[in-house]
Structures are given as C-alpha cells and as structure tokens.
Amino acid sequence: MTIGKLEPIKERFVKLTGEETFIKESSFALQHITKNPQLQKCPQASLTSAILNVAQYGLTLNPIHKQAYLIPRWDRNSNSMLCYLEPSYQGLITAVCKSGRIRNMVAGVVYAEDTFEMAMGTSPSLNHVPSKVKNRGAKTHVYAIAFFPDKTFQFEVMTWAEIEEVRET
Question: Running DSSP on this structure, what letter comes out for residue 36?
C-alpha cells in the first residue's frame, strides 16, 4: 500500500483533520501495514475505511500515543481478512474527553499489598494507596473513575477474578 492508494479518502480526511494530520496518519498507517503481513492481506477498501475512522474518531495511529491500532480479523461472510480500527483504552478516554462528556478518566490496578477501600451508597468513595514494597502481590481488583464537567464522578470496580472470567469468554 502507498499513500497514493489513500487518495479516495484524502478529501474527507483532510476536511475532518487537516492536510498535515492526513500526511502524518497516512505515514503511521503505512508503518502498521508494512510491519503486519496479515494487514497486507486485507482488501484496499477495508484498509481505507479503517484509516478514515482514525479521523472520524479524532484519534491517532502514532505508536507513541497508543490510542488506536489497525487490526486484521478474519471475516466469515466475505471469507477474507478485514482491517478494523481498534481504539485502545487510552484512545477511548481521549475520544470521550474530546466530546466534553467527561473531564478526565483514570484507571488503576490494585494489588494484594495495596490499601484499597471502596464505599457504595449515597456517598460513594474509592481510595487506593499503592504499596511501596517492591512485590505488591497478586492483582486483586481493577477500577476506572470518570470525572464529569460538573465536578461529580463515577467509578466502576471489578475483581481480578471477574476480569479473568471476561477474558476467557
């Protein structure tokens, strides 16, 4: 694939992000495709669609930012490999923050040696103090906290066992 093959999406991409961003993202996309033989098997239309989604979501394929990736997946219906834009959790946070629906979002992993307290009800709270010991023990929980523009927040907590259960499905 070459930048010339992205000509069909260039006008729309540039309208969404600008010429300079198109050039940068095209370069990042070509790097992804060159390094991944499975992406090279994807039809041109699938690749360009996934790359256009970068602009539509307001994300970047820049590997330093770790916001989104081009992922090849086998599609039974077309009997071929198709390319999909896959936002990372950092990319999802970026997109939601850009939308203005949240101010910020943080996530954390809790280990056995950490101090972790959570309260639900009418005054929910979450307190996580990572242990200073080198080996903090096994992972016990994960959490995410969304901070909203009105200064309120909401959090979700999962046990490590719940994470493993989801991973297995």
Answer: -
